[in-house]
Amino acid sequence: MWIEGIIGVCDFEFGRFPNTFRWGIADSLGSIDLDAIDGRLQLLKEIGVDVYKFGLKWDADASGQLKGVSNESLAAYDVILDRLQGLDVEPHISVFREDALESALLSNTSQICQTATKVFRHFGNKVRYWSTSAGTRWGCEVLGDVQRILSLHTCLYHGYKTAGFTGHFGLELPVRWLMAMDPSEPNIEDTVELARACDAPLWLEPLLGSGKFPEAVRVALGGRLSDIGVENTARMNGSADYVELDYHGGYHVTRTGSTGHIGFRAEAGQAWVRNSTNFYPTGLRELLLHVTTRFPNVDLHVTGRGVVSRDPSVSDRLRVEWIREHVNEILKSIARDNIRSVKRFTVPGFVDPSNCTTCMGIYQTNPGQPSAKFNKKASAVLLTHIVRMNGFERGYCGLGGFPSGRILHENGIYFDDFPEDFGWSSATSAYQVEGGWNEDGKGLSIWDVRAHTPNIIHENETGDIACNSYHNYLDDVRILKQLGVKFYRFSIAWTRLMPNGTKDYINQPGIDYYNRLINALRKEGFLVRGRGGILKDLLGVQGKALLGGPGQRSPPHFKEVGGWLNETITERFRDYAKLCFDSFGDRVKYWITFNEPKIITVSGYDDGWFPPGHKSHGVEGYQAAHNLIKAHAEAYRVYNRSQNGKIGITISIGWAEPLDPYNPGDLEASERATQFSGGWFAHPIYVNGDYPEVMKVIIAEKSRSQGFNASRLPEFSDAEKRFINGTFDFFGLNFYSAELVTSDFYDSVIPSYYNDKSTKGVENTNYLGSGSSWLKVTPFGMRKILNWVKKEYNNVPVYVTENGVSDRNGTLRDYHRIHFYRTYINELLKAIRLDGCNVRGFTAWSLMDNFEWNTGYSERFGIHYVNFSDPQRPRIPKGSAYWFRQLIEENGFKKGYPGIGGRGTAPAEEGKFYFGTFPVNFLWGVDNVDNTKTAHLKVNEKLAHISWKSVIPNSNGDVDNTVIQAYMKYFNELADSNVQQVGVLGYADIPAYIQGGWNNVSAVDQFVAFAQRCITHFGGKVTKWVILENPVRYIDEQETSHRQVVANNLFRAYARTFQMIGKLATTHKTGISVSVTWMEPGDEFAPSDCEASSNAMAATLGWFLDPLFGIESSPINLAINGADVNRSQLVTDLGLPIRMVDFAVVSVGTISWCTNNSAELSSPSSIQCMTRDSERQPQWGIRKTLNWIKYRYSNIPTYVKANVVTDKEADQMLAYFVETLKASKLDDVEVVGFIIPLSTLRGRLETMIQAIIDANGITRDLLETERMQSTTVSITSGEPSRKQIFGFYIFQVLIMFMLC
Fold first, then answer.
1. Residues 6 or more apart whose Cβ sits within 8 Å of residue 1236
2. Which of 172, 802, 852, 1219 is catalytic?
3. Is pLDDT above 90 for 538?
4. Cβ distance 1196 to 1189 under 8 Å?
5. Cα(812)–Cα(1086) distance, rounded to whole angstroms?
6. Is 454 buried (19+), middle (13-18) or exposed (0-12) by CB count in 10 A?
7. CA distance 956 to 938
8. Which residues pair with 278 in a beta bridge?
9. Least confident of 247-261, 615-629, 774-788, 808-822
10. pLDDT at position 562 over 90
11. Measuring CA to CA, which residue among 607, 817, 631 is closest to residue 727?
12. C-alpha distances in angstroms, 21 versus 24, 169, 602, 1216?
């Protein structure tokens, strides 16, 4: 019996194939062109495949019968085999190409075998893999052909073996995975069994099984099936060393009663057909499992039909998907199903012929360009990576970020934590923030000179004062502490320590300043104890100041001796670095030698945008970089390792996104651009001491064509390579933006770094802009560039040392910056958790608004606002600072609203309508509805209110049996309708004979007695109990002087009832019902208002619930509500558990906005909460309330009870459903049910509610029905929509346009 339906389809297997697994390519070869064969076969080496498979070309006579293989063809094959041997590629010959098989079946089998044996002897042991093809014949439908092919194959097999060869001879079989079209059709299982027997087993049983056709086939065909015969059976059985399964996809089976037909029809599943390709990879794994269950010892090779198209385009996306998904199913069968007999996968197509109409290849013929005879397709890029890796790697691991496997969670926010020791940081740079440009002996830097040169910097602004951190460094330390960062990345100004740039004169006041800063950081606890207690000030020794890179200041007279063009600069930089290490290395353990070296070299020496302002056209930039890399190595080597620090370099790399991610030319352009940008500096340090090969080759070629005697890219000596290689402990990465790139091989006679790359950028108008013309909001690039660094540099530890976005108005409500950081940092989290990138920290650029080089103070990157017209330069936190602080506190992205005041770092679908369904076991309930209405609504739960004074009407404690019987009838009717009951104990319906009501302590004992009677009489029908319903509201309705006593008595009654039910009915669940107002911060970016919100929630909802969960009341709670319930005494008296709630019923009425008007947060008068005048209340308060309950009360199972609304407010009710659905599905709140009040069920509201219950959620189809058409939804939120963010960026662009 075949095994069916045990394999999942939704996941992807990452990992490697066994070392013995083989990769092959099948080539139709066509006419043999020996002049072109070398280029064709060289592609095999480029991909790295092990096996090259092709079919023999047979000659035929006029009648179509095969004569043999000509001597000319044999000679050509000899050449091919010799070439393959030189390439270390195994040949595999199929005896008949598909076009020769038909002729073979018409020919004399014995004669064909004799001719084939001569071919075997001709090639000898050059060929160790042979096979016979069965073509595309589907078993029982052409049974005569099956028998002829089996006989022919058996003859060929024995002819090969008799000739004395020890190679492998197999059979190629067309196979499908067959399933029932309609699984409910009577007896369809037997029909599917027969259909499968007519597939692979029809061939395998005679060859490798019983020697006969499958029993199911013999039974079905009876006398119509001729016997194989005893003699043939013995000869045929065992006549295959392996089987190649040619997988054709998934087919549906239906029964048919047609006369003369075997009884079934198999047709390609139309749902799986994509562009004429049967695309059902899951069936391949199913098929392998079934075949190996019956034939466990046969070696299997796998191939398939592949993708056949009329389009020879190199961007063959469908073929990429076909290879990726089918190969992955093979890997699953090996890794998960433990199928070890699968030995090879062969790609079914190599090179398309010119002007092909049935294109199957992974290469395209390009006869118009002799230097590039064949163009690789995207499928060749994929196959190359899979073969070289021998499996699938996570992330964007291939050429130009091309992935080998599926990308996990490519879109949307990914929720997870960062590693426990992850380093959060913010950054500044010396010239941009310090000021004090000519104080305490500091020398002039080239940025001092440039900024004082008229008409260069925006509005002639300078860094003379900047943020005045030279004097206000304690303010910097203060805001760093408020952020909660572990690192502070700052830079040391060269000329503040060495006024003339040399060790001839050391400026002690400069050293003293940095000592004060470092000591202040240590005092405030910038210490990570998880790693040996080292101070993690991420300090930049940024020598690029010489050339005007960010944070660098060096003597202007260095320019006169060549600056970075003079090789002696390496010694001066070493001296500067050593001074820093000697002065601060006992406390600073992380050092960066250079920040953004490409800015120093290209912008300083090629473009002239930064000092020294040279425009050398692709010459001096390379020389400056050459010396800079050597200077980095000098600094690394001079470091005293006894200080136990780490050293790296920070390289700014933009992600080069291929214009067409499936075009190999664009993928190569992406790789080239990234090597020229990042590999230029990283490759010598992190790989082998030398530049990337692509740079060396291209620049040398272009230099020659431009008339240079040598390459414009200098060469390192062997000694220098050894000195440079390995000079790192980590990789510093600055990442801001991505751009689209494509190839541009225009050869300019004027040298240029940009022309050398042979790429060009392409504008994408869909990318959001910023306050900087060069910076586009492209978060996807963060994950891709981190994957690139992982791939190129052996997953070196990476610190993201800068990332941020600019604006031009400095708004404190910088939603656009929050959006930027949320999306970029989340992509970084994906790179860590999903792709395995070794990222150790993240740095927000910048800590505060500062001097942004040529644009002065017009572009603001800060998460703190600085007013540059105020002499004190105060630092004011923006919204992004508060957001970043919460992210650091939570150390990751948590669903929903976990933060104080209902803040979330990435709440999904906020402010948007949301479609979805509730969990399968979701409970729909009603409150105060008669049983007829209950049955009509098809709900499965109901709140049943039990009146205390009706059940026990007299002080003698006897129950009223008439009332008991009425309730039992009521409960039985509900049970007959399969409606569960939730009993609500009517504590507020207190009997009149209890004098003083709940102000009388005797009410506690009498309530417990009432509850016990309810359990006794109704416990067989009711298993969930709400002990108290809205106790806070009830307490508020009492006289002020009685409230505390009533509260204590209610709490005691609840606790004792909870304890009683737990002992009397151990399987019953108990809960509490509460009605609450969500307390929203008046200003979401004001910490005091968020604190006020949190305290107000604790003082209302938490006042009664906190003790039930063992949460101690806060001082503000006590101040607002008076003396707290004496929980400790109750615990002692009653032996109560920590948690006394199994579930909660929550109703959110309105939203109030809370502010704090006092510095004393524990003062009740400091908190003011009020509703805002509006005709309609937003409904997102329910989602935030549910999140508050989740995080405060360990995600207790919660029912949502809707508010009473009018028929005209159907949109409000729909919004209530939507926000509850978001809490359940997006925030993982344990919402177990939804309860609808009686007065809501009328008119259009009832119709809408019933539709939602029927769908168990809100679907698009449901919303489009006529009964929902008139319902509109208004869901507002404090978070901006994408439209608002986009609008902000448009505003920034307009500002830039006007300024320009």
1. 924, 925, 926, 927, 937, 939, 1202, 1249
2. 802
3. no
4. yes
5. 11
6. exposed
7. 41
8. 273
9. 247-261
10. no
11. 631
12. 10, 18, 47, 57
Max Cα-Cα span within the chain: 118
- Average pLDDT value over all residues in the chain: 88
CB 1245 within 8 A of CB 1213: yes
Report whether pLDDT(1295) > 70. no
Lowest-confidence segment of 5-14, 644-653, 1075-1084 by average pLDDT: 5-14
Residue 1080 appears among annotated catalytic residues: no
Rounded CA separation 1028/945 (Å): 11
Q: Residue 730: is its pLDDT beyond 50?
A: yes
Helices (H) and strands (E) in the chain, counts: 42, 46
| DSSP letter (8 states) at residue 807 | B
Rounded to the nearest angstrom, the gap between the alpha carbon of residue 1167 and the centroid of all alpha carbons in its chain is 41
**Cα–Cα distance list, 397 to 382, 386, 392, 679, 794 (Å):** 10, 10, 9, 16, 12
User: Which string of DSSP letters, residue by residue, matches 817-869?
Assistant: HHHHHHHHHHHHHHHHHTT---EEEEEEE-SS----GGGTTSSB--SEEE-TT
Phi (first) and psi of residue 904, to 5 degrees: -135, 145
How many whole angstroms from its chain centre is CA 874?
A: 39
Mean pLDDT of 853-874: 97
Binned at pLDDT 50, 70 and 90, residue 781 comes out as very high
Counted residue by residue, the chain has a size of 1300
- Sequence letter at residue 558: F
Dihedral angle of Cα 879, 884, 890, 893, to the nearest 10 degrees: 90
* Residue written as token pair 């608004």: 849
| DSSP H/E element including 733 | strand 730-734
CA–CA separation, 419 and 828 (whole Å): 12
Give the integer Cα–Cα distance in Å for 1178 and 1151: 8
> Distance between CA 294 and CA 298 in Å, rounded?
10
User: Strand, helix or coil at 66?
Assistant: strand
Type of residue at 348: P
Q: How far apart are CA 550 and CA 610, in angstroms?
A: 10
% of the chain with per-residue pLDDT over 90: 68
Contact 1290, 920 (CB under 8 A): no
The token pair at 107 is 């020919």
The dihedral through the CA atoms of 1180, 1185, 1190, 1192 has a sign that is positive
- In the prediction, which pLDDT does 286 show? 97
> In this predicted structure, what is the pLDDT of residue 1297?
41
| DSSP 8-class letter at 777 | B
| Predicted local confidence at residue 936, as pLDDT | 67
Task: Check: CB of residue 424 under 8 Å from CB of residue 886.
Answer: no
- Decide if pLDDT at 962 tops 90: yes
Look up residue 964 and give its two tokens.
Answer: 């008991």
Q: What is the structure's pLDDT at 643? A: 95
Q: Which two tokens stand for residue 512?
A: 């003293």
pLDDT at residue 1212 above 50? Answer: yes
Q: Are 426 and 489 in contact (CB under 8 A)?
A: yes
Phi (first) and psi of residue 901, to 5 degrees: 75, 20
d(C-alpha 152, C-alpha 172), whole Å:
13
Per the listing, tokens 């291929």 go with: 658
Dist CA 64 CA 106 (whole Å)? 8
User: Are the CB atoms for 886 and 899 separated by under 8 Å?
Assistant: yes
pLDDT at res. 1137: 65
Mean pLDDT to the nearest integer, 10-34: 88
Sign of the CA dihedral 206, 211, 214, 219?
positive
CA–CA separation, 1186 and 1234 (whole Å): 13
Express each pLDDT in 426-440 by its tens digit: 999 999 999 999 999
Q: What is the pTM of this model?
A: 0.92
Answer yes or no: is pLDDT of 1245 > 90: no
Q: Decide if pLDDT at 100 tops 80.
A: no
Residue 225 has pLDDT above 70, yes or no: no
